[in-house]
Amino acid sequence: MSQLLGHNYIGGQRSAQGDIRLHSLDASTGEALPAVFIQATEAEVAAAANAAAAAWPSYRNLPALRRAEFLEAIAEELDALGEDFIATVSRETALPTGRIQGERSRTSNQLRLFGQVLRRGDFYAARIDRAQPERQPLPRVDLRQYRIGVGPVAVFGASNFPLAFSTAGGDTASALAAGCPVVFKAHSGHMATAEWVADAILRAAERSGMPAGVFNMLYGSGVGEWLVQHPAIQAVGFTGSLKGGNALGRLAAARAQPIPVFAEMSSINPVLLLPEALQTRGAAIARELSGSVTLGCGQFCTNPGLILGLRSPAFSAFIEQFKQQMAAQPEQTMLNRGTLANYRKGLQHLHDHPGIQHLAGTSQGQDKAQPQLFQADVSLLLKGDELLQEEIFGPATILIEVEDQAQLFAGIAALRGQLTATLIGEAQELTNWRGLIELLQEKVGRLLINGYPTGVEVSDTMVHGGPYPATSDARGTSVGTLAIDRFLRPVCFQNFADELLPAPLQNANPLGLLRLLDGEFSRAAIS
Amino acid sequence: MSQLLGHNYIGGQRSAQGDIRLHSLDASTGEALPAVFIQATEAEVAAAANAAAAAWPSYRNLPALRRAEFLEAIAEELDALGEDFIATVSRETALPTGRIQGERSRTSNQLRLFGQVLRRGDFYAARIDRAQPERQPLPRVDLRQYRIGVGPVAVFGASNFPLAFSTAGGDTASALAAGCPVVFKAHSGHMATAEWVADAILRAAERSGMPAGVFNMLYGSGVGEWLVQHPAIQAVGFTGSLKGGNALGRLAAARAQPIPVFAEMSSINPVLLLPEALQTRGAAIARELSGSVTLGCGQFCTNPGLILGLRSPAFSAFIEQFKQQMAAQPEQTMLNRGTLANYRKGLQHLHDHPGIQHLAGTSQGQDKAQPQLFQADVSLLLKGDELLQEEIFGPATILIEVEDQAQLFAGIAALRGQLTATLIGEAQELTNWRGLIELLQEKVGRLLINGYPTGVEVSDTMVHGGPYPATSDARGTSVGTLAIDRFLRPVCFQNFADELLPAPLQNANPLGLLRLLDGEFSRAAIS
Fold first, then answer.
1. Does A264 participate in catalysis according to the annotation?
2. For residue range A12-65, what is the model confidence (pLDDT) as tens digits?
3. Closest alpha carbon within chain B to A140
4. CB distance A307 to A458 below 8 Å
5. Which of A67, A282, A421, A422 is the most interior residue, by most CB within 10 Å?
6. Please, are residues B431 and B443 in contact by the beta-carbon 8 Å criterion?
């Protein structure tokens, strides 16, 4: 099983028609790993999209319970992967074993959570308005509504979560849950990992009797453009850079049939430190916050990239403590050489900016990433300076001292959309800053109090989304069960005989769903 | 009140800074009506967008009940408009009095229905996952989620529904319900009507204590482009042509911050006539269907533009009956001269096409619209001929005879996305055509059996949407309560003290909402 074939996955078969050979790299050494991956040709991309389209009618029509069993089978297969698998992921990403094991559990539990959603059935959003033949001036006809998948979905995995945001990650899980077959574009940073996981998905598909083509995977750079442009693809899920997400969005909008794209892209995740909290527990905050900034080498979408405080002796004291904490953080190996090069470039831009001062951090070399702390003049924030608004992917963050409350509000207002914002404050002062909570709601997908944004719970309540450029569409999330909504659309049935209706809408309510029945929620069967 | 000022509505004030003077036309005579409307300048468009943005924080934070009262007040004001108003609408649109009165009721009831949604509170989609401090390996923190409006919405009214899809129509009602202030672009076809309705909205806003800027309205052509490009606008609702909707979609995607557009555009609404039904009640179907094709002069988005039947003596007999019915339909005045010119052009394209044959209809003149029936060769459908796929706005329809079931399926598969599809069949034969029902689901927003697609019930269950080009985003609807979803986005609150949470998420459940609490739906308060 550790022998990797390196061929594309198309309709349940392996395919290698191309002649471009790709290698995955050892993340620590930069050396090419032995396995060879064959880049997909344009014809193979089309074949994968068509295989997904061919699987769609039968896959979407499976009872939700069957799709739940499929997702749960993937989870089992993932959990059963052994030491070899963990070693492969670690070698391709430089992530430590414990992190990979934790991310694997998160990924399989995420699949199981979507299984629960499918069993619960609320994703159908079933609604029934019974006929009112006597209504005046016009009778009302029987109308029923539920949701179906949009069709085949193209998914692009992220470099920083080789499991949870990748082959069998949240986008794939939510699309499959919605009844949409997936064509997955493997990330060049962890192609061997992708192959292990794709094999697990295919084993699960086979033993749960899924149609061939329910899951497909392609290797290679540039193949994603063909994929998004293929007419069979009906939606796109993406996690990655602002540049990459924007490019996919433009391609999708320029199609003969435009399709929706959900791209999770760029967020600097502001953290606001309120005065009383700093006074009461500044040292602890400095310690915890430096831990959040450097967690996983700062390679999280929710990494705190901007720290705001009000000018005060307490904030000045905090800055000193935070400098020490950041200076004491160890260097770490990044996901790959490209990521490190980008981090170096990002740091250089900060060093070169006259309004930005370097506060802490060892000089950045060519090898591991050094944690870094900067301080920017508040005017940069108020002017909307680009450098301050762009995510620097790595263990670095920027402090800003604001004069007063008015300037803090103006600074927040100048921020673009974010995945998260965090308030650190004492109970009483938070009550006095209600207006700030309101303003922040307009900017973010998730608002935290006295916590740190790294660490994203996979649950019914999570929002890993937010206004642009955090994502391309603030109405979605890529983590949590609400992610399924991105790939569902409503269909209305008018004047249908009961036996012609899909099960969720039948009178007997065979699935026991909570349905909106004549304007009230009910699990009742109707006659 | 019948004295129209003709100035733009900005932040509760009237404004006329421009020097382009516009006139509304009498739809029947084409003569300019006396009132003058002043086209908005670019600065006025910006002022309107900024007024909406200024109203947003206070408007979105009003209790949902207050917004319900506002919508209900608009409904009351609309219903209170007198004979003068009806006469104005009739003069601008050539629609008969009865239709206008019916449409007014539909519009005010639509506002009241959104009031019910606001009182019901399910639009919040409240979810709570309580903290699990003892969970292993990591504790779970308290997480809660609800939905807020996306921000100011630009709405473009339709020519064919001067009330229900216009100033106080479904897009405006759903945006206002979602907590989003509106900037409405008045349709040039009924500017006087728009002014009457805008005045009604402003009276309602004043007596229900809404912030200035909750509703704004602009006159003029071209001003819509400035509006969609203004940074304060966060979403767009549009009903109109494919060309117009596509243009807005491109503008929205090209913004520095791309925003979602819901455009309802083009649908030919296929009607499939099954053999037994034709045998049993062909004459009745011919009569009913001709009524649906010519209803409201064929100026409905759901007008049946394509009629498919299987080659058989029954279908041949139906064609003869349908020819007679269509030939007997009276001429009607269209909404305006431009609409008539487009209808004439559309008919000419059909006449000129070698694969299309004219079956019935008086020669189309320069005055009123003549109902027309054509028959196209099935090869046009199978080849995806553009002419067959494009909506012809007016009382015309096209028949196609298919050879057999396989050809029928191939023809359906070749269709683009539709608002509706209709099956006319007897009970037993419908059971045998289940596969067709499945295939049609993939193409449409609404599927009807033994009914006609004209006539769109405003309800919880309606879907007035569908895959492109029926709309720009199949995940939405512009009629029915689900329309509110287009303008809502989720926000997650992590580790919030109860008193800092918005009411829908507080422990005591003060709004009595049905909430997803630790994975189960419940109205329970929690401690």
1. yes
2. 999 999 999 999 999 989 899 999 999 999 999 999 999 999 999 999 999 999
3. B457
4. no
5. A421
6. no
